[in-house]
Amino acid sequence: MAHINENYLKLPGNYLFATIAKKVADFSQKNPNANIIRLGIGDVTRPLAPAVIEAMHKAVDEMGKAETFRGYGPEQGYEFLINKIIEWDYETRGIHLDTDEVFIGDGAKTDVACIQEIFDKNMTFAVADPVYPVYLDSNVMAGHTGEFIDLKGVYKDVVYLPCTEENGFKAEPPKDRIESMELKNCCFPVPANKKKEHVDLVYLCNPSNPTGTAMSKEELAAWISYAKETNAILLYDSAYESYITEPNIPHSIYEVEGAKDVAIEFRSYSKSAGFTGTRCSYVVVPKTVLAYTAKNNAISLNQFWNRRQCTCFNGTPYIIQRAAEAVYSEKGRNQCKADVDYYMENAHIIRDGLQAAGYTVYGATNSPYAWVKTPANMKSWDFFDLLLEKAHVVTTPGSGFGPHGEGFLRLTAFGTRENTIEAVHRIADLKLIK
Amino acid sequence: MAHINENYLKLPGNYLFATIAKKVADFSQKNPNANIIRLGIGDVTRPLAPAVIEAMHKAVDEMGKAETFRGYGPEQGYEFLINKIIEWDYETRGIHLDTDEVFIGDGAKTDVACIQEIFDKNMTFAVADPVYPVYLDSNVMAGHTGEFIDLKGVYKDVVYLPCTEENGFKAEPPKDRIESMELKNCCFPVPANKKKEHVDLVYLCNPSNPTGTAMSKEELAAWISYAKETNAILLYDSAYESYITEPNIPHSIYEVEGAKDVAIEFRSYSKSAGFTGTRCSYVVVPKTVLAYTAKNNAISLNQFWNRRQCTCFNGTPYIIQRAAEAVYSEKGRNQCKADVDYYMENAHIIRDGLQAAGYTVYGATNSPYAWVKTPANMKSWDFFDLLLEKAHVVTTPGSGFGPHGEGFLRLTAFGTRENTIEAVHRIADLKLIK
């Protein structure tokens, strides 16, 4: 008899974005003439850069001729793309990588969801709270957590790292292993029979989704020290690095000393080049990042991720890899940067406009996300409903990203300029802040 | 301390196709003038159909304009493609599917490797022997098997279904659950403390990779009965269905009564439309396929696969889904069929030519693969070496697909006509069979 993986049943039934979609659809049906502006889902709206379009047309033509047709490519990706990544994303920042340390994927979601497969089932992991849900959900489904505690909105046996106004929304490493886990960084006491002295894996998203805040090199250095002391691994998602505008915020964790011993880095073209529907990403697994067998033999995670990819993935489409390669051409770089600048201008319009209207706004400086405090301690969902009904603006409730997101909304800068300006005006005009 | 997933260490270090590649590279270096013909890896060589190329150019242009740009698509795939699949691959054969029963993927390798995630860790699965390695390896890595037994070339706690000349290379359901598992379909006795009355999951590849043979509707009906009796699930890989030429071989398992209650079907455009480097596939999970909780509550696997895809995958690229859609246009169907016919003509050239030279050849009638018996009981690898050295032809040793592949070679029909004819001549000219 086939049994299901019951870990899936731990997932709460109502998905954040499905709930939002339903609320918007209901509102839309009742108010068919409302001009709804969507600043909720983090999806880009600007078309692909002309250099990318040109490269794809060329690659499509190659696939139509026997002499230039490409069948199975390397599971790890083509070197023509890997070499550009190393040259432009790393060498320019003084980071040296070998070609076999970069793995091309079909999206950072897949990559961050599947990385947990190469680790032992009995590991303990930490996530920021609030956080991009995939880190958590993928581990829930793989059985790396306990049950969901409805009242608290958290899973048992997961170490949550609260990101609050007090700490600038920055996940901090446990300062003392036992004490910090039990008292500070955990939303509930760790059961006494579980001796969790520290965490094995830490998911860090920098700049952060959803808060839009970013950790500095010094703050990351503290994490690297922690990882080295405890032999933990940092899973570093820098999907939003192209939105960084401040000099002390690193674009890659490998800009920080020692990171190549403890960190795996995830990158995506979704937000840097508008690839949300085009699908390309990469993972950097330096050969110096080690994990251990039960008998304490050190093994390079590079060979494990390589084996995972070779068995469970057959490479990103050739045409798409050529598209990503074009992002690094001179034209491609300029065109993609222009789009990022356009979105960042939107981010500033949201940040400055709402601040002028009296709101407390975080993020939106090194990130396309603004993290807006609700007025008068309103609950996230209540403020979401109010903005939908009164301003016809769709946002994302902060509490959907974790309990410490309560009292905030996430607004994204990926709309058109016109809609962004209009949305800010509508929210300001509600005059909710005295 | 981060620990690795030690299940990965069970995988033998030498990968079949890496070993072949090394042998060919060594030979090539020593014999730089040898004109090597590769009939080893199952990769297509003919360019994409003009209808597919046209559709991709159009989709690329859409991605370059704001009005037609596409961001995140549905994780399950676009309905424009799902509707074509249902119309052409299923309705034409009298099979009715709902749009939410079809999930577009980025390749059947990913799909078949990841399907095990939705099942309970303590399941027992069966695979044909010889078999496409991904079914096995993905389960090894997920911890669903015991150790690899070097001497036997099998993993503990896996039920192998021998495919031999005697049974026409067709995996048969265990006739009596306990007896059959222990004595007939298993390469070694099941430990007494493991009460394996039956298997929970069965991987069936039809037509088979590597043997090129195919099961009839009646033979599949026996599997469906077995699955219904034991509440097992059939994971049916029909990646090669477009090569079927005989009328009683089903293209879909749903052509057989009752399959929609027990079978998940995997399809790929890799071999039917030359998409090995373009990457598109789909999985059919009828809502009527059920598995069970530990407390015996039945749950539809459709919702589990949907959740898996929504969490761990972000959809196949829009451009690629438009490419797959074009396979179903009138031009696309004709052009793709012409390519399949071309490869099948190669398959017949291999089959008929080697049979004329005295070889025993299976497959190559409903499949692009010929399964060739080695002369004089030669070992697979010895015959592989001999053909490389004397005929400069690369093949795949049958033993690389499992112990019951010993004594066979797999030859693929995906070369050019000229090379295929030349390879057969060279092998025949060796006059190895008296």
In short:
The first copy, chain A, has about 425 residues and is α/β, with parallel strands linked by helices. The first copy, chain A, is about 35% helix and about 15% strand.
Descriptive overview:
- The structure is a homodimer.
- With about 425 residues, chain A is of the alpha/beta class.
- The first copy, chain A, folds into two domains: about 10-40 and about 330-430, Aspartate Aminotransferase, domain 1, CATH 3.90.1150.10; about 80-325, Type I PLP-dependent aspartate aminotransferase-like (Major domain) (Aspartate Aminotransferase, domain 2).
- Chain A has twelve helices and 17 strands.
- The first copy, chain A, has helices at about 15-30, 50-65, 80-90, 110-115, 135-140, 175-185, 215-230, 300-310, 320-325, 330-355, 380-390, 415-430; strands spanning about 35-40, 100-105, 125-130, 150, 155, 160, 200-205, 235, 265-270, 280-285, 290, 300, 360-365, 370-375, 395, 395, 410.
- In chain A, strands 2-10-9-8-7-3-6 form a seven-stranded mixed sheet, with helices on both faces. A four-stranded antiparallel sheet of chain A has the order 13-14-17-16. In chain A, strands 1-15 form a two-stranded parallel sheet.
- In chain A, a hairpin with a 5-residue loop joins strand 11 and strand 12 (about 300).
- Chain A is globular.
- The N and C termini of chain A lie far apart (about 65 Å).
